[in-house]
Amino acid sequence: MKVHGALLSTASQRVFACLYEKELDFEFSGFEDGDLKLFESRAINLYIAHAYADKGNQLIYPDGKKMAILSMWMEVEAHQFDPVASSLCWELAIKPMFGMTMDAAVVDEKEAKLGQVLDVYEARLAQSKYLGGDDFTLADLHHLPNIQLLMVPS
After folding, report:
1. In what order do the strands lie in the sheet with 2-3?
2. At what angle do helices 144-151 and 10-21 cross, to 10 degrees?
3. What domains sit in the chain, N to C, each tagged with a CATH number?
4. Full-model pTM
5. 55-105, pLDDT tens digit by residue?
6. Side-chain-facing half-sphere of 78: CA atoms under 13 Å
7. Which residue of 47, 58, 65, 85 is most buried, as measured by CB atoms within 10 A?
């Protein structure tokens, strides 16, 4: 397998995390597996989780009902968490790396929005061990790159 992307890209890191969980060898070079070429990190991870279900950690469910719940939380990550967290990562982690000044107003706005998303997560995690259910899944894994950047002291 080949992975094309930037090492610092949260999208690339999302794919690296999935490959690591599936215990697969890969070459960092987009994404290629034989004749299949994909470019969206979440689609790549879904493919990897299905195609290599017998390897490493199970990141999806074979059960339709459980998979629907997992898919719902993957959508929440993609459309609610990621846009806000990515903006915060840009302001708090990436800009300082390049000597740029963060925009405090943007940080305040995005922190408030992220707080709302995290409140929803807290309610969910009061009901289940992980977002997608009782197991670590793609719904959780997809959060890792942004959380890692947000945890780095600025």
Report:
1. 27-28, 2-3, 31-33, 36-38
2. 120
3. 2-51 (3.40.30.10), 64-151 (1.20.1050.10)
4. 0.85
5. 999 999 999 999 999 999 999 999 999 999 999 999 999 899 889 999 999
6. 14
7. 85
